[in-house]
Write a structure and sequence with these properties.
single chain; 81% helix; mainly alpha; 6 helices
């Protein structure tokens, strides 16, 4: 392999490791989240779907990483894993509160993952690596779908949490559909703002 090809390959290997580390930490946090109690079947269902999809995404990422190889002692992976491990610990502490707060944290973590996939996708296109490009594109689609599902589930989860909270009186629990429509409208309107 030429020096140029070796450098390009190492860049793909590094990104694969970063993706595996990130998705592994998200799965670990979701493992804990499965234990949350909820009065809402919808809340439990979305958590299960997020968990199962992230678990499958991790398997796909590990398989891709095995196909391209690893770089022993990659400092980016080590530093990233340490940061993500700390973030997962913080998320675990926050997740004891409610389904809505757990979904908020998942939304943040999944946006981190979709940004990583976006950067990997751009890198693989710049390096003319179709295998990596296709892998990253599928990851972007999977994670973007999960983020949209959280957008859909979050209003109901917030209203349920408010109803379960004895310190507040829910004035209008029927706002869920209106909130979902508003969220969809705002995302649609701003998607062409660039």
């Amino acid at each position: 392999m030429t020096e140029h090809a070796t450098k390009n390959h190492e860049a793909i290997v590094d990104w694969a490791g970063d993706i595996v580390a990130l998705v592994s930490h998200i799965e670990e946090a979701l493992d804990h989240q499965l234990k949350l109690s909820t009065n809402s079947a919808t809340g439990g269902a979305i958590i299960r779907e997020l968990h199962d999809t992230v678990r499958d995404e991790k398997k796909r990422a590990v398989a891709f990483q095995e196909s391209v190889g690893t770089t022993p002692g990659n400092p980016v992976i080590k530093a990233g894993s340490e940061i993500l491990g700390k973030a997962a610990g913080v998320i675990d502490r926050l997740r004891k509160d409610s389904i809505a707060k757990a979904l908020r944290d998942d939304y943040t973590a999944l946006n981190h993952l979709v940004v990583a996939y976006t950067m990997f996708h751009t890198t693989s296109m710049a390096l003319k690596n179709d295998e990596a490009k296709n892998f990253a594109e599928q990851g972007m689609r999977t994670v973007a779908t999960l983020i949209q599902k959280i957008n859909e589930a979050l209003p109901a989860a917030v209203v349920q949490d408010l109803a379960d909270n004895k310190q507040v009186d829910v004035v209008d629990a029927a706002v869920v559909a209106e909130c979902r429509a508003e969220i969809d409208r705002i995302w649609s309107e701003t998607s062409h703002a660039v």
